[in-house]
Amino acid sequence: MLAGLSRRLLDAARANGADQAEVSCSEESGLNVSVRMGEVETVESTRDRSIAVTVYFDGRKGSASTADLREESLATTVDQACAIARHTERDPAAGLADAELMATDLREFDSWHPWDIQADEAIDLALACEQAGRDADARLENSDGASASSGSTVSVYANSHGFVGRERGTHHSLGCALIAGRGEQMQRDGWYDIALAAEDLEPASAIGRKAAERAISRLAPRQVPTGAYPVLFSAEVARGLVGHLLGAVSGGALYRRASFLLDSVGTQIFPEWFALHELPFLPRGFRSASFDAEGVATRESALVEGGVLQRYVLGSYSARRLGLQTTANAGGVHNLQVASNAGDLPAMLAGMGTGLLVTQLMGQGVNTITGDYSRGAGGFWIQDGQIQYPVDGITIAGNLKDMFAAIEAVGSDVDHRSHIRTGSILVGRMTVAGEG
């Protein structure tokens, strides 16, 4: 149905005089429940539809959207998009991606696994998760709750080059957050899992116990003396470092001259052993796709190889602004894999010897123009390769260029709950602001 609807809207855009047009249609449905302290807090069932039309009149762009499938509403949406385009300034970089770049090999990636779960079943699952955590230790007297969710999305992207691409996917999650201790000594932590297929989720009891273990481990935190130390980012926060790299090499930041990595393709940014690859064809990958948001065929490629930045992350608009070609990244990257060169977390701790293990980050103190990095952090102090005590109320600081160059190891303890797959990342030296 969505494909036929897209073709009709494209025909209407041409009839209104547009020389190029594109349509994105999607239908989503989902179930979300949350519980706290053994009681149901929310039950939400959702069903959404979105239809977006974008037209181009010789570089002048207009967009409009609707969720109404009535013929008069669809016609009005096209008319509005065309009216907007006629009143905008011409932009030489605007327009569809080049026709010869459109994907022709449209694949499935085992991403469709609907979960026939009813609201009462989801509630029972969330309650079991929370209860398993609360039962794990008497010091867990409070809870921030547990949640379970399931959703599915069907979408179509079509444009006036004749491209029509269909995608469908499901997503399911289960999580719990617990509070240990009392009064000013309370500490909060949690755990969650997310998967495309429900059978890939960790058991509810295991998630609850992991949340309990993490919350209890944070009791009685200390600070550390201000100084420069090795900092090990645990896998779940290490992907944030990759996210900062992506922000700096994305087209929008580059053509606005708002990146600390301007003109960096072909330069050494990381150690020589460091590699980062985009893998858009992974079965059950969170961002697996045959085409990007403009219909351009995706491809496996290196973003970083031998520590050298190989390319930027571009859609067709930003590529034209930079005088380059799209890298099939309109809408984002598709499954990034950071190559490991070290063992699991215990092995990483043993190799670090003494330093800080960061498991939580707070604040937004990252300047993508200069690369300056300063964030609140929590975690654990490591001595002789062993966890000694939890640490809280500190700040870690550096510059991302220096931090990238100072990466000493990437662990094999890969966190699979994201399209950015990385293990723990050890930065050889950072400023840690604590006591004194």
TrEMBL record:
Residues 226-434 form the Metalloprotease TldD/E C-terminal domain. SUPFAM superfamilies: Putative modulator of DNA gyrase, PmbA/TldD (SSF111283). Keywords: Hydrolase, Metalloprotease, Protease. The keyword Hydrolase applies. One of its GO terms (cellular component) is cytosol. Residues 21-85 form the Metalloprotease TldD/E N-terminal domain. Residues 113-219 form the Metalloprotease TldD/E central domain. One of its GO terms (biological process) is proteolysis. It comes from the Bacteria. GO terms for molecular function: metallopeptidase activity. Belongs to the peptidase U62 family. NCBIfam families: PRK11040.1 (NF008268). This is Metalloprotease PmbA. It comes from Novilysobacter ciconiae.
